[in-house]
Specification:
- The complex is a heterodimer.
- Chain A is mainly alpha-helical.
- In chain A, about 70% of the residues lie in helices and about 5% in strands.
- The longest helix of chain A is centred in the C-terminal third of the chain and has 62 residues.
- In chain A, helix 1 packs antiparallel against helix 5, helix 2 runs antiparallel to helix 3 and helix 3 packs across helix 4.
- By secondary structure, chain B is an alpha/beta fold.
- Chain B is built from six helices and four strands; from the N terminus they run αβαβαβααβα.
- The longest helix of chain B is centred in the middle third of the chain and has 14 residues.
- Classes of the chains: A mainly alpha, B alpha/beta.
- At the A-B interface, helix 1, strand 1, strand 2, helix 2 and helix 5 of A face helix 2, strand 3, strand 4 and helix 6 of B.
- Chain A: It comes from Apiospora kogelbergensis.
- Chain A: It holds the Pfam family Vma22_CCDC115.
- Chain A: InterPro entries: Vma22/CCDC115.
- Chain A: GO terms for molecular function: unfolded protein binding.
């Protein structure tokens, strides 16, 4: 029985390993494309210009963020996702994050509520099955705040208004890597870790069962000799 | 396993890599600088002059101090410099993923996940 358990777990583990290797190959391909396109953009750029850290915007805000799927139970491993975040939603969550770090009290509660609302909106957006009349109202609320400024958050703009085609291609490949491959890879990694733990447990159980069987065999053997 | 509080606020990806790797990933919109006076970045550009201590400090900041990082991406050749830290890191959040760089293609021999696989199969 235990033998079958271990085999089943190992089979599951090998499937995960296969998927991990496949995703790795895809990530390598995308990364190679990104580097090639960046090199092309740098080659064609004006003399002395390099698309790199000198042009990063020091006030950058993440427009793609990690969402960890809620765990139904503590024994289940987490699933990662990277989603695009709206500029307005971004402003809201940022306020909440900053407040939670520095202050406590009523503002925190308000902002957390807003964050929850926005999270709900995101879920609604993803599902696109439920009516969104009420959440649309809520969505407009942060927009009406006078302090919120709408800016173009596309990182391509750090490098100028007219950017070369290879740089745009590099961005497209990077988005694909970050949205599709990286979250799957880390989710599979988490799943593999979980299966590893289960395999070790099953092996331990099997070893114990074998030891117990051997002991009982020895005991019966001694009994027969004595008789 | 992890509790809800462990992962709820982990919304950013962090990168430790060479300039091209970081630029490429930031183009996807993962870069984030927190509001002043802290102004903490979620990336570190590593070049020949960057000391291992600085890489280690960034790794520690992303994995232990900051509670808003969900995934840490690190170039494999940079991970090699702090291999002991990477291999002994076992927390579920944030999760660490090694990625190839321009001059150092992905080497499965060094991948911590595949090292774990070999260990499981008793090699």
């Amino acid at each position: 029985m235990e033998e079958r358990d271990v085999d089943h777990l190992l089979e599951q583990y090998l499937h995960l390993l296969h998927e991990y290797t496949r995703l790795r190959a895809e990530l390598n391909k995308l990364q190679a494309g990104i580097y090639q396109n960046l090199a092309r953009a740098n080659f064609a750029a004006e003399r002395g210009l390099r698309y790199g850290q000198d042009q990063y915007d020091d006030r950058m805000r993440a427009s793609r963020r990690v969402v960890v799927a809620p765990l139904p139970s503590l024994s289940v491993c987490p699933t990662f996702e990277v989603v695009k975040v709206d500029a307005d939603v971004d402003a809201g969550t940022e306020t909440a994050a900053v407040v939670s770090k520095s202050e406590a009290g009523t503002r925190l509660v308000q902002d957390t509520n807003r964050e929850q609302k926005e999270e709900e909106e995101d879920e609604v957006k993803e599902d696109e099955t439920e009516p969104i009349a009420s959440s649309a109202k809520e969505m407009k609320e942060p927009k009406s705040e006078p302090t919120t400024m709408k800016k173009n958050k596309d990182p391509l703009r750090w490098f100028g208004l007219i950017t070369p085609m290879p740089l745009r291609q590099a961005q497209a490949q990077s988005v694909q890597a970050v949205e599709d491959i990286v979250p799957k890879l880390v989710s599979i990694n988490a799943e593999m870790t979980q299966v590893e733990i289960e395999v070790r447990r099953a092996r331990k159980k099997r070893a114990k069962a074998e030891a117990a069987a051997k002991k009982s065999e020895d005991a019966t053997g001694k009994g027969e000799v004595a008789a | 396993m992890a509790s809800t509080a462990d992962y709820k606020d982990r919304q950013f990806l962090a990168v430790i890599g060479d300039e091209d790797s970081v630029t490429g990933l930031l183009l996807a919109g993962i870069g984030h600088v927190t509001d002043p006076p802290d102004s903490q970045k979620n990336f570190l550009v590593v070049d020949n002059k960057t000391e291992t201590a600085a890489i280690e400090a960034a790794f520690e900041s992303f994995t232990e101090q900051r509670k808003d990082i969900g995934i840490v991406l690190i170039n494999q050749h940079i991970a090699d410099k702090i291999r002991h830290r990477i291999d002994t890191y076992t927390a579920a959040f944030p999760t660490v993923l090694e990625i190839p760089s321009k001059e150092h293609p992905y080497d499965p021999e060094k991948d911590s996940v595949l090292r774990r696989v070999r260990r499981l199969f008793g090699e």
